[in-house]
Amino acid sequence: MNCRVVVEAAVPVYDVASADEAVRIAISKTGEMLNPDLNYVEINMGDRHCPHCGETLEPAFLAADESLVALELEMTVFNVERDEHAARIARKEIGQRLENIPLDVLEIEEIPEESDEEESSTETASADDSSSQSEDESDDVLPEFEELIDE
C-alpha cells in the first residue's frame, strides 16, 4: 500500500518585518534543510483557523520581529502496512532533517494502485507490438544484407 502523508511543521523565523517575508524565509529555510536528500517533499503554506470563530488566519504568527510559520510538508510513502506505519516513516524522514522543529501529522491518504490484471495485459500487448515491429524490420533488413553478400 502507498500513502500520501501531509505533516504540519512549525518553523521559527527571526528578524522579519512582515508575515509574507516570514513565510518566504520559512519555505526557503525548510527547503535548504530538506534538499538534496528529500527533494521529493512538497512544501506549502499551512492553513490556520481561529479556534473561536473559524476565520482563516495567515500562516505566520508575528511578534517582536520573530515569527512562527505553519508549513505543510507532503510526501508519498511506498510499501507500508497501514496508515500509522506511513505516518511514522514520514515523521522520521522529515524529522531527521528538521531538527528542533515540531511536526504533526495532518492527513494520510491511501493512493489507489493499478490492478495486476491491467498491468499484465498492457505488458503483453506492448511485447506483442514490439515483436511484430522487429519482424517487419527484419524483413526489410535481411534482403539488403543478402544483396551485400552476393556482390
TrEMBL record:
Coiled coil: none annotated. Residues 105-151 are annotated as: Disordered. Residues 122-133 have a biased composition (Low complexity). Residues 106-121, 134-151 have a biased composition (Acidic residues). InterPro entries: UPF0212. HAMAP family: UPF0212. Belongs to the UPF0212 family. NCBIfam families: PRK03922.1. This is UPF0212 protein NDI54_16470. It comes from Haloarcula terrestris.
